[in-house]
Amino acid sequence: MPRQFRKDVERGLSGAPKTLPSKYFYDKKGGELFVEIMNLPEYYLTRAEHEIFKEQSEAIIQAFEISPEQHFELVELGPGDGTKTKELLSVLSLKDYQFEYLPIDISQNALDQLEKELASDLPGVSVRKKQGDYFTMLASLRETHHPKILFFLGSNLGNMTDRQATKFIYRLGSNLAPNDILLLGVDLIKPAGIVLPAYNDPAGLTRAFNLNLLSRINRELGGNFNISNFTHLPEYTAETGIARSYLVSSVEQTVTLNGSSNAFHFAQGERILTEISRKYDDEIIKQIIHSTDFRISNKFTDKNGLFADYILKRA
Length: 315
Known about the structure:
The protein is α/β, with parallel strands linked by helices. It folds into 2 domains: 2-42 and 192-278, no CATH class; 44-190 and 280-314, Rossmann fold, CATH 3.40.50.150. The protein has helices spanning 2-14, 28-38, 44-64, 83-94, 108-121, 134-140, 162-174, 192-199, 205-221, 282-289; strands at 18-19, 72-77, 99-105, 126-127, 130-131, 148-152, 181-187, 230-237, 242-249, 253-256, 263-266, 271-278, 294-301, 307-314. Helix 7 links the parallel strand 6 (148-152) and strand 7 (181-187). Helix 2 (28-38) packs antiparallel against helix 9 (205-221) and helix 3 (44-64) runs parallel beside helix 4. The radius of gyration is 20 Å and the shape is globular. The relative contact order is 0.17.
């Protein structure tokens, strides 16, 4: 990780415009801050998707069109604490569906914690955790030949460009069989007055979350970022449907990393793009999956129409 982290940081800060990969937000401190962010009243995403699972799990299961007697594998990419998925797992277990739950995550610690909680909360659910890269783990499941329902929730797709999203979903489909299902959770396009506070809350948690990335670079790569010389700036318009988060240099300055021959110069007002958060509607989803093996089978939204979970069936 340190070698790849350094490589990605040097490449991003050498570019024009400068960027930093959002996947590096989640060190220990970043993870703790994000848990706090998810509980903020302004951060609607988690609550809206949780509502869908809490209120509509039975309808979602019916839309899978799979019989209780048919054994299948429910595979989840990046399950986190599994709060939303537990709602659906509980209904499946109660109705005696024959299935196995396979969470896939790069973090062994997150998987171990999830397994422990499921053993306590839903002891009847069979859990087989898979630690590693998404596509490596999915490829290893091909040999089981069981029908698969794949979860990719939380609008994690929104961190990709539309072109990247198409390639990602195509690769998912290449690891699935005809009639297998992808349940895709995405944030919907909505007014800036709802979106922007979720990325710039009054408590300053999203600001601290973004700036923590610079602190991580200082700590792990020997950077000399002066955190007070950067501000957090989110941008969003409903016309584009894309939220972007930036760190902005408030002064002209130069930053270095230990062991690197590169020096990274910032002009006053120069930005680092740290995150893209894409918002969607039906037409955008159709465009993204047009050249993949998937087609929209069903769609579930929360009562306020903030978030959607699409059921995509592989042709």
